[in-house]
């Protein structure tokens, strides 16, 4: 019997990494020809009471992280074809001595890094904390002769806006990291997953959530951009793994393909309508001035983070998430998932139902805590 290749998953206890693990150990993904060749290694920064790279039962893994696979999906997550998973705890992006053993004997690595919202003080944009983390990971990957990396990226807003919006550093940092990874070809093969806005943001980020307005007896979402502004949305905690599985099943040829991962592009007005249908109450979207959004909607936020959010949504309105081709790219990603037989993606309305969303309960998410 051929020995299975190791697929390492960074951020295994978060939304993206957790979704990758849940999908790849479950039907239908686990029985696909290419996916079935992998054995998973979960990498987490958490301290867990196990030895490095220890193989443990899946049930023990879910007990350790205090979570369980989502059983209310198209996938049969209760009938896992893979019974064990390797686990490496206390992996630190900025501590090379933890990265080298984490990537030992790994064939493919799914890499997601935590965005940094701190402004870069150096004249060198590549000195950002996230970019340095990616350099550390790739240095370890090259040293351990990892064959392929799949990186969770985002568009470069400075380039997309031709230099008009330069403060959306969480996006630009990931895009620069993507360019760096591409530069390492052919030493290491790569593919890229660019996720849309997380549906869970509307449950965990108070400035996006509907707020009750006594004057109109309605719930109101307020941003400084037009209601027709389109936002690609994805249930990252449930569907990231479907896109990763589809990319791996199709195979990574090393050309650096990029897949935009989203269930659909929703106008802000349309998002409010979905909330109305789900709650049975009047929810509407209202465009406000930039000043009102900064001072009221983002009250208490650091000025640097206000810059990120104001410019980020302004760029979205003017240029689209990934330019004029955003809608077509979303459909292309969805088609890839369908062709691999990985089931339907979660719509915003389905997401709110799964989360048991109730108006006025404050920022919360059943998946990821308050």
UniProtKB/TrEMBL annotation:
Keyword Oxidoreductase listed: yes
Domain NmrA-like: 4-330
InterPro entries: NAD(P)-bd_dom_sf, NmrA-like, NmrA-like_oxidored
Keywords assigned by UniProt, alphabetized: NADP, Oxidoreductase
Family: Belongs to the NmrA-type oxidoreductase family.
Record protein name field: NmrA-like domain-containing protein
